[in-house]
Amino acid sequence: MTKPTRGFPACHYCGNCGAGCDTASFFCSADHLLPFALETGKLTIRSNAVVARILTGENGLANGVQYFDRRTGAEQQARAKVVVVGASCVDSTRILLNSTSSRHPNGLGNGSDVIGRYLCEQIRLNVAGYFPSLVGTPTRNDRGIGGEHIYAPRFNHRPGHGRDYLRGFGIQFWNTGASVYGAHPGSKQIPGFGAALKKEIKQRHPAWFEIHPFGEVLPYAHNRITVDPARVDRYGVPLPSIDYRIGENERKMTEHMADTVEEIVKAAGGVLVDYRRGQLDAMGSAVHEHGTCRMGTDPKRSALNWFNQMHEVRNVFVVDGSAFPNASEKNPTLTILALAWRATDHLAEEIKRGAL
Amino acid sequence: MALSNRRTALRTLAAGAVGAATSATWVESLSALASQQAHAHAAQAAVGAQKWTPRVLNAKQNAMVVVFTELIIPETDTPGAKAALVNRFIDAVLHAAPPADRAAFLRGLAWMNERSQTVYEKDFVSASVADRTALLATLAHEKNEAVEDRLGVEFFRAIKSMTIDGYYTSEIGLRRELGDNGQLFFAQFDGCDHPEHQG
């Protein structure tokens, strides 16, 4: 934050944002939401509680959660009028699918059978190289603070940039400057050993770059999280199992990503290192899972309404990325927060109205 | 950087899976572990250099690792891997590694000694600098696909990768060799100053 906010000082640019901020000068729910909620006296935080299932009554509505104490393994319950689920896409899905009952034999609120389906995780290329024009120049600390990077927004909607596929990709540019985390991994690709290797690593140190296009994967019903009763965690709760494969649309997009990266690197005078055209990172590397408890207007084709509220179980809200009907190519955290905020505003109104 | 590190770890592991044809899994696995542990190493080195005993390596193996790492990143106008205590980093990585990977690394060390005995009639640490360097050059050669050298080639890749992680995250490597001054940031970003982009 550039100005003092809620009693916390403005950013002092120490640069260690990735480890959390000691002065709470960037927004984080642990600093900027939870303490204020605790001050109301109406919030109890129960740490080390691993939620396994959402419990329901005979009327089919949720009435609490079952959880296990991480330290003792003891099974516990917490009773509730309303349950808000935000365990991140994969685990929220797992909890919902494990919450079976006579009223919800296919998992909680899953009469439509969409929960677990339409998993969207972005595809990602990981390209590294260096600029000969920067080789041997002095080490500069020009990376900025806390993992900032250059971002090229999706552009294929612009005239002349379209291709024969749906949706698109954005590009993150990293390591544009000397790493403060040691030698770039590309250093290991420099042949040989000894003084010559040492010299080359130093010379290339300010010259490395990385380019990461992130592309949208369409929502496919076959990309799916299920729970497997044969594989359980240490509390005996079934683990998730993930089926995921991309199709022709994503393969065409990958080609466009590769063409774009190659064009940029050529124009900028860079040299690619260990480059394997079109080789995508392992699925899951983008760490932006979405879609397995999607919102929509049609209860037959979606699990949640536009307030993240379950169509079939009106006192359950799901507020993480699983609520998204698709992943887009972007980083989702701010949108997740905005939707969660809207959902909980609605929840508060519903409670005041006596509807929940 | 947490997310980025997580991605790096995933990427490295994934590379291990697909790159198995060119690099043995244990090499990728140890390399990935070394990258993950590099920060812990930086913290440890700052603490106690006085008293140290290896947890995995015996005295002979440790001496060999010291010699080996110094061959990979030697003292030049700045200190090398030996002064940066990269052997301690490698011992710590091996301690944290799955037993099978640890065993593969130790087999690699033994292989080096046997090869040195065969060729130079001396174990690796006792061989001349020229002989050691020649032996390493054979293994470092990108086109070396000889079956009888395979373990040595794999071992060289593993220890080179671990040495690079250990050395360049040490104070000697990062500050003195690479010239990082610990300043992470600009207090202000003034934007692009290319004249053609103004206005």
Mean pLDDT of chain A: 93
CATH class group of the largest domain in chain A: Alpha Beta
Mass-distribution shape of chain A: globular
Distance between the termini of chain B: 35 Å
What is the terminal separation of chain A in angstroms? 37 Å
Beta strands of chain B, count: 0
CATH architecture of the largest domain in chain A: 3-Layer(bba) Sandwich
Query: Mean pLDDT of chain B, rounded to whole units?
Result: 82
Number of domains of chain A: 2
Oligomeric state of shown chains: heterodimer
- Percent range for β-strand residues of chain A: 15-25%
What is the tally of helical segments of chain B?
8
The number of E-state strands of chain A comes to 13
Strand pairing plus helix content of chain B: what structural class? Answer: mainly alpha
Q: Could you spell the SSE succession of chain A in H and E letters? A: HHEEEEHEEEEHEEEHEEH
Written overview of the protein:
The complex is a heterodimer of chains A (356) and B (199). Chain A has 356 residues and is α+β, with helices and mostly antiparallel strands. Chain A is built from 6 helices and 13 strands. In chain A, the strands form 4 sheets. In chain A, strands 5, 6, 7, 8, 9 and 12 form a 6-stranded antiparallel beta sheet that branches. A 3-stranded antiparallel beta sheet of chain A has the order 1-2-3. In chain A, strand 1 and strand 2 form a beta hairpin. The mean pLDDT of chain A is 93. Chain B has one domain. Chain B is mainly alpha-helical. At the A-B interface, helix 4 of A face helix 1, helix 2, helix 6, helix 7 and helix 8 of B.
